[in-house]
Amino acid sequence: MKKLLVLLAGPPGTGKTYLAKKIQQVYESFVLVSPDELKESCYDQYGFQNIKEKERINQIAWEKYYEALADQMKMSRSIISDYPFSDKQKSRLEKMSLKYGYKVVTGCLTADLTLLYQRQRARDLEHTRHLGHLMTNYQLGKVFQRREEAEDLPSFEVFSKRCMQRKYLEFSLGETMKIDVTDFEQIAYGELMQKIATDLF
C-alpha cells in the first residue's frame, strides 16, 4: 500500500471524528492520530489553573501530536487525523509529508456556522465531552454539573469569529475536496472513500 495521510478538516460540529471512524471501518489499515485526544490526555496529566497554563499545555499536546505523527510515518502507516486545522498546522504537516514521502488528501467538512455552533454547543454540554475543553481551571477528577456556565464555552460570536479568522472552512493541503455536512442523512462520503481507495492501493 502507498503512504497516505488523510486530513479531516473543517470547523467544530462537522462530524470529523465520526467520519474518521467510518473510514477506519472500511480501511482497517488506518491509524487515527487525534490532536484532541492528546490534549485531553495532557489536561488529565498536568491540569491547569488559568488560561495561560491551558495554552501552555495545548502546546505540549501539539508537540506530542507531531511526535506521534512522525512515529507512524516512520513505520509507513496509513494515517487519519481529524481537527479544525488552520494555517498554524499547515506548514509543519506539509514538511512532514514531504520528508516521509506521504501523499496528503484533505476532506474539508463544511456547513453554515449557525448550524455548526448549535451542534458543537450540544456536544459540549454532553457529559461525555472532556471538561478540559470547556474550563479555564481543570484538574483530573473535577466535576462540573452546570456546563452551560463553563468559562471557556464559546458564545456564537466567539465561535464564528474563530472559524473565520482561522479560515477553518478554507483549509487545504494536498488534494482537497469539500464535503457538505448540512444534513447528516445526505452526506456524500463516497467521493472521498473512492479517492482514498485510489490513492491507497
Distinctive features:
201 residues, alpha/beta, Rossmann fold, 5-stranded parallel beta sheet, 14% strand, P-loop_NTPase, Kinase
Structural class: alpha/beta
Distance linking N and C termini: 5 Å
What low-confidence regions span 5 or more consecutive residues with pLDDT below 50? none
The general outline is: globular
Give the assembly state of these chains. single chain
Outline the biggest β-sheet.
5 strands, parallel
Task: Give the count of helical stretches.
Answer: 7
Q: Which strands sit side by side, in order, in the main sheet?
A: 2-3-1-4-5
CATH superfamily: P-loop containing nucleotide triphosphate hydrolases
Instruction: Output the CATH class name.
Output: Alpha Beta
Rounded to the nearest angstrom, the radius of gyration is 17 Å
- Beta-strand residue fraction: 5-15%
Task: Kindly state the number of beta strands.
Answer: 5
What's the order of the H and E elements?
A: EHEHHEHEHHEH
What is the fold-level CATH name, i.e. the topology? Rossmann fold
Amount of helix: 40-55%
CATH architecture heading: 3-Layer(aba) Sandwich
Q: Mean of residue pLDDT?
A: 95
Q: How many discrete domains?
A: 1
Organism: Vagococcus entomophilus
Protein name: Kinase
InterPro entries: P-loop_NTPase
